TrEMBL record:
<dbReference type="InterPro" id="IPR051082">
    <property type="entry name" value="Pentapeptide-BTB/POZ_domain"/>
</dbReference>
<feature type="region of interest" description="Disordered">
    <location>
        <begin position="1"/>
        <end position="49"/>
    </location>
</feature>
<dbReference type="Pfam" id="PF00805">
    <property type="entry name" value="Pentapeptide"/>
</dbReference>
<dbReference type="InterPro" id="IPR001646">
    <property type="entry name" value="5peptide_repeat"/>
</dbReference>
<protein>
    <recommendedName>
        <fullName>Pentapeptide repeat-containing protein</fullName>
    </recommendedName>
</protein>
Length: 337
């Protein structure tokens, strides 16, 4: 019996050791499986991170590509716009050039036609310009006025010179009968037209005389109700003339004789007078706002008011109507009148 118990004990001991070994092997196997699972998890995490990074790279590449394509498109568009603008400017310049050439050709034809018609008119009736009756004079005046309206400034000057050479610019016809009455002679260089210093200048009432030039001339014509904006008067004698109700805005007068001229109602705003004689002239209602007077003699002028001095922008060495010499605008006061 003791032997039997000992054998049973040994078998039981052996069985426990076998069970322990099996349990140990099972634990090692479980640990290996856990390690495998951890490796798999880490691999999945790495794969996921790699995929995320790859997506970011792909997105950045796509974004950079879009930006490059946009910048390239903008450059191409800008280049196209610049080229288109250049083409438009070039086309406009060509159009303006062709238009100006056509205008020159058109104006030249108009002037030539007028000269031929004037020559034919005077030749047909075989009369001298001084002998024109009122009907022919009206015809010449109307044709002249229409033609002047269609010409540029250069050809207007040529037309006026044609009238001068034909002796149609004289003082025989007055007021509304004058050839240039109410005519558009803007831009005409009268100092290039009339080469006789003592020539009796015709009346030019109510004419458009903007941007005209009168230099080294002498005349006493009627220029009332005319427009002389931005005109140039230099070394001119217009004594005893009539320039009433004319507009002379932004014009320049230098070394000019205006003695006894009627300036009533004239507009001299922003004009410049330098070295001017205006003795005994009429200044009723004259506008002088922002005008400059330097070395101007107004002795004996009628209608000149203190307000006109105050409206000047500059004044120096001005002889006032009562003989007082105004050295600067600041010296102006009521007692000088």
């Amino acid at each position: 019996a003791a032997e039997l118990r000992r054998n049973d004990t040994e078998r039981a001991q052996k069985q426990r050791e076998e069970d322990k070994e099996i349990a140990r092997l099972q634990r090692e196997e479980d640990k290996k499986r856990e390690e495998d699972r951890e490796i798999a998890r880490q691999q999945r995490a790495d794969d996921k991170e790699n995929a995320r990074l790859q997506r970011e790279v792909d997105l950045k590449i796509a974004r950079d590509k879009r930006i490059q394509e946009y910048e390239l498109t903008e450059k191409e568009h800008s280049l196209y716009q610049s080229q288109r603008a250049h083409e438009i400017v070039f086309a406009q310049e060509n159009y303006i050039r062709e238009f100006m050439l056509e205008e020159i050709h058109y104006s030249g034809n108009i002037l030539l036609t007028y000269q031929r018609e004037l020559s034919a008119l005077l030749g047909e009736f075989q009369i001298k310009p001084d002998d024109l009756d009122r009907t022919l004079l009206f015809t010449v005046q109307m044709r002249t006025r229409t033609t002047l309206q269609l010409l540029d400034t250069t050809r207007r000057t040529i037309l006026v010179r044609t009238l001068f050479q034909a002796n149609l610019l004289n003082d025989k016809w007055k007021k509304h009968m004058a050839i240039l009455y109410n005519a558009n002679v803007s831009g005409v260089q009268f100092d290039q037209v009339i080469d006789r210093p003592s020539y009796k200048f015709p009346d030019i009432e109510r004419a458009d005389l903007r941007y005209t030039s009168f230099r080294s001339m002498s005349f006493g014509a009627r220029l009332d109700h005319s427009i002389f904006i931005q005109s140039d008067f230099a070394f001119v004698s217009m004594a005893d003339g009539n320039m009433s109700n004319g507009s002379f805005i932004d014009s320049v007068f230098e070394t000019t004789n205006f003695d006894r001229v009627d300036f009533s109602g004239a507009d001299f705003r922003r004009c410049t007078f330098r070295n001017i004689s205006m003795v005994n002239c009429s200044m009723f209602g004259v506008k002088l706002q922002e005008t400059k007077l330097f070395y101007v003699n107004l002795f004996g002028c009628m209608g000149f008011q203190i307000e006109q001095i105050y409206s000047l922008s500059a004044a120096n060495k001005v002889t006032l109507p009562n003989g007082t010499l105004l050295h600067s605008q600041e010296e102006t006061d009521d007692h000088i009148f």
